[in-house]
Amino acid sequence: MKIKHRLRLVVLNHAHKLKIHRWAQLKLLREENLITQFKPFAYREREFLESCLPIDFKPEEATKVTACIVSSTQEIDLLPLSTGAILASQESSIDRCFLVAPSEQIMAIKRVIPSEFSVVADEDLMDIELRLFIDQNFPKDRRGWIKQQILKILAAKKLGGEGTLLVDADTILLRPQNWLSSTGVQNLQVSIEYHSPYQEHYERFMLSSSNVNKNLIARTKVSFVTHHQLMQASILDEIFGSSEKDFHEGLQRWLKSIEFSKSNSPACEWHTYGTFMATNFPSRIHLTQWRNVGLSRFSQLPKRSRQIVELSVENILSDFSGLNSLSLHHYIERP
Questions:
Q1: Would the pLDDT of 300 be above 90?
Q2: What is the CATH number of the domain that holds 311?
């Protein structure tokens, strides 16, 4: 590794000790209106600012939240790890756990996940109208992906009380964290990558509402696609609508704002929630470092003789000590 790269890593690993996290948060969450010529932070700039954030959220009084994974048998090999890691690493911050899956797959999934997780059928959360709209309007190979996003939002609205920690099935949480304070301030993380179609979708969605003052719609120079996120029901009501009817119509508008013409990944629930919070409720945000690493689920660690997917939760938490999360995305190629 070149010397300059080593120096950069040293700076990034120790930047949080500079105690400039308030400045970093203000800069990361600084918003611009839709008229301003827009350019997100460059990768290196986002990387440095994120490294200046604190590692932990330490509210005076923390509130326990609900944890939820939306999945299917497609990720059944990873579910014992992602569910087990939630119980092992987030024990002090959660009080209930849910897993949402298609009804015909529930029995198979129950066999591999801890009994602490209550399993809820997709059909009990998403009504037939939303399902039909997705099936009739989106590419076949992307319908499941879109349904999972809607199901996460609905789970946070209907199952999670004040706050729901949503976790992708391929993401393993590694460290204890506080997620929500008694005053409604929440732990939120920003991602290093930035995908413009997510922001474009968010703006189309916001502009589609007749109740929104278009002059107040804003954007940030960062994204929030962190593969896990705390969503507050009260914020979701602000985004989609507080009554059951309005919430349903808000979800329909969100779906109708999706365009596949320019990208095969044109919308994101994480980015929608994070951007809305950042531009409407910045005082209820406490940014912390993401500290995530993405690896192939088939990677083999030097000191282990097995692939990651074959390891125990205890092994993974030990081997990746110091990180917040590990994402084993299916699209990361075998090493």
A1: no
A2: 3.90.550
pLDDT at residue 37 greater than cutoff 90: no
User: What's the CA gap between 70 and 150, in Å, rounded?
Assistant: 10
Structural domain boundaries, residue 238: 1-335
Strands 31-33 and 117-121: unpaired
Find out whether 283 and 183 touch, Cβ atoms under 8 Å. no
The torsion defined by the Cα of 139, 142, 102 and 136, in degrees rounded to 10, comes to -20
The alpha-helical segments, DSSP class H, found in the chain are 3-14, 21-29, 43-51, 79-89, 106-110, 128-137, 143-158, 196-207, 233-240, 244-256, 269-280, 313-319
DSSP element (H, E) containing 90: none
Does the CA dihedral 230-231-233-235 come out positive or negative? Answer: positive
Q: Closest Cα partner for 233 from 301, 291, 167, 164?
A: 164
Tokens of 108: 């198979």
- What single-letter DSSP state applies at residue 23? H
Say whether 222 sits in a helix, a strand or coil. Answer: coil
* b/e 124-147 (16+ beta carbons within 10 angstroms → b): ebbeeebeebbeeebeeebeeebb
Residue among 117, 120, 71 at smallest CA distance from 94: 117
Say if CB 28 and CB 220 are below 8 A apart.
Answer: yes
* pLDDT tens for each residue of 149-189: 999 999 999 998 899 999 999 999 999 999 999 999 999 99
The tally of CA atoms less than 13 A away on the side-chain side of residue 328 is 23
Alpha-carbon 160 to chain mean position: 15
pLDDT over threshold 90, residue 190: yes
Using an 8 Å Cβ cutoff, are 66 and 100 in contact?
no
Compute the distance between CA of residue 50 and CA of residue 291 in angstroms, rounded to an integer. 9
In the chain, the number of structural domains is 1
What single string gives the DSSP state of each residue in 161-212?
TTEEEEE-TTEEE-S----BBTTS-EEE--BS---HHHHHHHHHHHHT-TTS
